[in-house]
Amino acid sequence: MSRQKDKSGFGVKGKDDLARSFGEMLLSGRALEKRKSPHIKLEPKLKPRAKASFGRKDGAPGTSVREPQGGSGQRWLRLPNLFKRRSWKTLVVWGFAIALAVQAMALVFNVPVPTLGGRQLWTDVRISDGWRVQCHAWTGHCRLLDRHNLRHDWGREDEMLAALDTMVAQGRIQAPRPDAVVLVHGLGRSAHSLDKMAEELRAQGFEAVQFNYASTQGAIADHARALNRVLDGLKGVRTVSFVTHSLGGPVVRQALEQNKQDFEVGRVVMLAPPNQGSHVARTLSQYAFFRTLLGPALTDLASPSMQVLAKPPSPFAVIAGRVSVLSGDGDGVVDIEETKLKHMSKHLVVPASHTFIMDHPDVISFSVDFIGAVRKHAIETQKAQNEGHKT
């Protein structure tokens, strides 16, 4: 105890005043900052920097105007309020307004501009070398798109078809290849969902026709009639094969049953088709929200009439998906048994989900090989005819 008393500055060596001030603070309960001690510096070493004035309203703190070097005394010009710092909601509103203004100017002057999307509301009427005439499901007006989805013109249907015929006459649109493959997407999707399949078919020398239709705005019979209009517009083709996904399978079956085409129907590859209906569609069709969201086609997929649709009039193959054994015997939307159809040439099961089954490498390879047999058969038939003429 004597040693502690002799030690100057209990707790701090050689700092009697500081130790006394700290001890008094603990005993009295007063804050340390109220004590006036020369040994304690309460001011921060680094002062916070003043915030920039960019994006702040006039009169707000930190809005001092910076003068340029040279002492001219002229102040910097302030940016318009539109370009000042805004919230993300304001930027979204302004961006949408600018996009609408650009689209309106393009409509007035017929300037080729990208579309705003909305592929679920547009149905193809005629397709030629990637160019297409589409009609809106609600308004009925049509537009002319090039192979890069740039809108070149809009108006009535007859006007757009005449504009497309004019481009064909001018040589801006090439003649189709003799063997065409029509790709039909599923419910809630668009023609771009089959881009990888179309690229591989084009690389193998086929005329890939990606049919886009407003799948949520009509029944299967309506989509089948729209498909027949596109098929009637295919001129100069020898055979037409089909690659379908989900709802596209029943649409093609209905279309081939409605009309007899002038061309020869090649082969059909159906990816995850609800040939026997879909248990998911039957469940969702019980709720008004999903019936409104997905349209009359959902009710068609849930009805027993799916089982009485005519099969394709040519050899066809069915590819089903299986996500995993634990999730059930199917791709999450359609079971494997629901995809089967009588008299099918081939039934293949791949480890893929319903949404992305068309991008599976095995699916693309099998589809191209299965459809490629049509071209081999056509070449052999042509050789046999030529030899018959010689004899």
Give a topology summary.
Elements: H1 2-6, H2 16-28, H3 88-109, E1 113-114, E2 122-128, E3 131-136, E4 142-145, E5 150-155, H4 157-169, E6 179-184, H5 195-203, E7 207-211, H6 220-232, E8 239-245, H7 248-258, E9 264-271, H8 279-284, H9 288-294, H10 296-302, E10 316-321, H11 336-339, E11 346-350, H12 361-390
Parallel strand pairs: 6-7, 6-8, 8-9, 9-10, 10-11
Antiparallel strand pairs: 1-5, 2-3, 3-4, 4-5
Helix pairs in contact: 6-7, 9-10
Structure, described:
- The protein has 391 residues and is of the alpha/beta class.
- Among the domains are: 58 residues; 213 residues, Alpha/Beta hydrolase fold, catalytic domain (Rossmann fold, 3-Layer(aba) Sandwich), CATH 3.40.50.
- The protein has twelve helices and eleven strands.
- Strand 2 and strand 3 form a beta hairpin.
- It is globular.
CATH topology of the domain at 176-388: Rossmann fold
Oligomer: single chain
CATH homologous superfamily designation of the domain at 176-388: Alpha/Beta hydrolase fold, catalytic domain
Query: Could you give the count of β-strands?
Result: 11
Task: State the end-to-end distance.
Answer: 132 Å
- Beta-strand residue percentage: 15-25%
The major beta sheet can be summarized as: 6 strands, parallel
Q: Spatial order of the strands in the main sheet? A: 7-6-8-9-10-11
What CATH architecture of the domain at 176-388 do you see? 3-Layer(aba) Sandwich
Topology as a string of helices (H) and strands (E): HHHEEEEEHEHEHEHEHHHEHEH
| Range of helix content | 25-40%
Nearest-integer average pLDDT: 81
Assign the structural class, choosing from mainly alpha, mainly beta, alpha/beta, alpha+beta, or little secondary structure: alpha/beta
Determine the number of helices (DSSP H or I, runs of at least 4 residues).
Answer: 12
Radius of gyration: 36 Å
Overall morphology: globular
Please mark out the parts with pLDDT under 50 across 5 or more consecutive residues, or reply none. 7-12, 70-74
**Level-1 CATH class name of the domain at 176-388:** Alpha Beta
